[in-house]
Amino acid sequence: MKLAFFNDWRLGVVNGDQIVDVMDAVSLVPRVGPHDLINGVIERWDTYKSKVEAAAKGKGVPLASVKLLPPLPRPINIDCMAVNYMEDGTRTEPAPINGFPKSANCIIGPGEQMIMTDIPMTAFEAEAELGIVIGKKGHNIPAANWREHVFGYINFIDGSARGLPPAGAVFYQMKNRETFAPIGPWIVTADEVPDPQQLQVRLWVNGELRQNFNTSDMAHKIPRSIEWVSAMHTLNPGDILATGTNHGGLSSLMDGDKVELECDHCGKLAVTVKDDLKRKWPSVTRLAGGDRSKASVQTGGKYAPK
């Protein structure tokens, strides 16, 4: 099943090129906003699944006629795995397991803009990632029990403003700016994804394929990642665990760029980039440019080398 918010925060089920309003089926979920609604549906999925399935057989409207919104507008936690791919053999061994939190204020949805603010970044990148949507609350979750805590999957873009001063103390401000976590266009439930470790992840910039990798290349697999993160804090229904990216295809983004992400089974998420300063970088991936040597040299606009 594919769950999405649309228009004025109506919850719908996506069937092909149609979306069916299922708000009546979840009307009893306690809420003060859409975040409570979707988190509550996920938490009580055993109760609401059959009701939502029945409602989803009703008449839909064309997806093209509605505005899709972030399907998880305010997760309690967004945890991101860091350096979590073997990079198609360019890494000889896994990096030590690591990660970082991302603010819920970073969330945006389909068709929205990632905003490059007036800061001296050396590159602005959008990292293609598979997001895990937590379905069952848990702390110290054993790796062997990971599936019972997963509700579904989602496209996740990790926006990164790299090279900010002061050197060595930039991770928080690099990752946690508003609009730096596009998600969507919907949540696909776990039963539709037989093996999340065998999914192709693709990211296009202005129609050009930049990232193209498989989740089988993940260094610390999903069970271990869930175990590791949940050892530090409780995971809650509706939380997101972003599983990392293959860095070789990353490139600097600029004003007006259209970014599209598609993880197998998860639909295609499209956002654009806005930069009022109109800064310029070479349109080259890290791999083609020799890591970041060419990709991060700003060629025009404020903060360009003199």
**What is the count of DSSP helices, taking H or I runs of 4+ residues?**
5
For the biggest sheet, the summary is: 12 strands, mixed
Spans where pLDDT lies below 50 across 5 or more residues: none
CATH architecture of the largest domain: Alpha-Beta Complex
CATH superfamily of the largest domain: Fumarylacetoacetase-like, C-terminal domain
Number of domains: 2
- Give the amount of beta strand, in percent: 25-35%
Molecular shape: globular
Q: Provide the succession of SSEs.
A: EEEHHEEEEEEEEHEEEHEEEH
Radius of gyration: 19 Å
Helix content, binned percent: 10-25%
Structural class: alpha+beta
Number of strands: 17
> What do we call the CATH topology of the largest domain?
Fumarylacetoacetate hydrolase, domain 2
Oligomer: single chain
Mean pLDDT: 96
Q: What distance lies between the first and last C-alpha atoms, to the nearest angstrom?
A: 53 Å
Could you name the CATH class of the largest domain? Alpha Beta
Per-chain topology:
Elements: E1 2-6, E2 10-15, E3 18-21, H1 34-43, H2 45-55, E4 61-62, E5 68-69, E6 78-81, E7 99-101, E8 107-108, E9 113-115, E10 123-134, E11 150-162, H3 171-175, E12 181-189, E13 200-205, E14 208-214, H4 222-230, E15 240-242, E16 258-263, E17 268-274, H5 286-289
Helix pairs in contact: 1-2
How would you describe the overall organization of this protein?
The chain has 306 residues and is of the alpha+beta class. The protein folds into two domains: 2-69, no CATH class; 78-289, Fumarylacetoacetase-like, C-terminal domain (Fumarylacetoacetate hydrolase, domain 2, Alpha-Beta Complex). Helix content is 13%, strand content 31%. It is built from five helices and 17 strands. Strands 1, 2, 3, 4, 5, 6, 7, 8, 10, 11, 12 and 15 form a twelve-stranded mixed beta sheet that branches. Strands 9-17-16-13-14 form a five-stranded mixed beta sheet, with no helix packed on it. Helix 1 (34-43) crosses helix 2. It is globular, with a radius of gyration of 19 Å. The relative contact order is 0.18.
